[in-house]
Amino acid sequence: MQKFINATLSACIEIRELIRTNEDESAYLPIKKGAGGDMSIGFDIWAEEIFVKHLKTFGTISSEESGIIGEGEHLIIIDPIDGSDNLKTAFPYYGASVALTLKDETLIGVVCNLATGECFVRDAQEHFTTNLDDISQHSCIVKNMHAKVGLFEKAGLHPGAARKLMDIGLKFRAPGAVALSLAYAHYVNYVVFLGTMRPYDVAAGLYLCKDLHCYTGDDVLIISKDKVLFEQLLDIFELPKDIL
């Protein structure tokens, strides 16, 4: 469904331009408690409106900000701004997450770093990166086998788990945008996320990672391209290996 991918990327282009040109201070202020449980700021709400405009003809939208919007056979799961705190801090690690699903099966996943323009796209045929500056250019995803660090989302809330990783020499960063960290999973050593698994956070990103070793539970997510390291992480977090 190239039309859906193009519509999603067009929405991301419009949102990035909104962020770049915005002079309205209300964009950074909390507006309401979103369907996902977090406070939505102005940018979250405006980004959602842009996604709805571009994607409403493709199916029902389930958004972190407003919940269910519209109707249709397909379900489109979106996080309009992943990493809002990073956006407010001008830290270039915030983006958008969009998954097109049908009967609980993900068909397309798109995650975009709105700060850099880099986008990750996967459907049944392709898995590639492109850039909002020129979406006609595609590059295949290549696993980085020289990675030295992992990504541990919510590490600050789990000092004991962080210490276990550091004790065996596993370096990590905690950048603060789950969907983006999943999108970059092919480039890093591993990804760990401890917390509630909300579809807005992980639906698109998990689809991008479907060729990697992955464990998902109610409150834990572990991904690595390296089977040995993956098993080591399962041991650290005392998780079963019968998934292998």
Verbal overview:
With 244 residues, the chain is α+β, with helices and mostly antiparallel strands. It folds into two domains: 2-140, Fructose-1,6-Bisphosphatase, Chain A, domain 1 (2-Layer Sandwich); 149-236, D-Maltodextrin-Binding Protein, domain 2 (3-Layer(aba) Sandwich), CATH 3.40.190. The chain is built from seven helices and 15 strands. The protein has helices spanning 2-21, 42-55, 84-88, 159-167, 178-183, 199-208, 227-236; strands at residues 30-33, 39-41, 60-63, 67-69, 75-82, 95-102, 105-113, 118-122, 127-131, 134-140, 149-153, 171-173, 191-194, 213-216, 220-224. The chain has an eight-stranded mixed sheet with strand order 4-3-5-6-7-8-9-10, sandwiched between helices. Strands 12-11-13-15-14 form a five-stranded mixed sheet. The protein has a two-stranded antiparallel ribbon with strand order 1-2. Helix 4 (159-167) links the parallel strand 11 and strand 12. Helix 1 runs antiparallel to helix 2 (42-55). It is globular and about 45 Å long.
What attributes characterize this protein structure?
D-Maltodextrin-Binding Protein, domain 2; alpha+beta; 2 domains; single chain; globular; five-stranded mixed sheet; 244 residues; Fructose-1,6-Bisphosphatase, Chain A, domain 1
Low-pLDDT segments = none
The string of secondary-structure elements, in order, is HEEHEEEHEEEEEEHEHEHEEH
Question: How many domains make up the 3D coordinates?
Answer: 2
Distance between the terminal alpha carbons, to the nearest Å? Answer: 32 Å
Shape descriptor reads globular
Cα radius of gyration in angstroms: 17 Å
For the record, what is the CATH homologous superfamily label of the largest domain? Fructose-1,6-Bisphosphatase, subunit A, domain 1
Report the biggest beta sheet as strand number plus sense, adding barrel if it closes: 8 strands, mixed
Tally of contiguous helical segments: 7
Percent of sequence in beta strands: 25-35%
Helix content: 25-40%
CATH topology of the largest domain: Fructose-1,6-Bisphosphatase, Chain A, domain 1
The overall strand count is 15
Q: What structural class do you assign from the helix and strand content?
A: alpha+beta
Name the CATH class of the largest domain: Alpha Beta
Mean pLDDT, all residues: 94
Strand order in the sheet with the most strands:
4-3-5-6-7-8-9-10
Gross CATH architecture of the largest domain: 2-Layer Sandwich
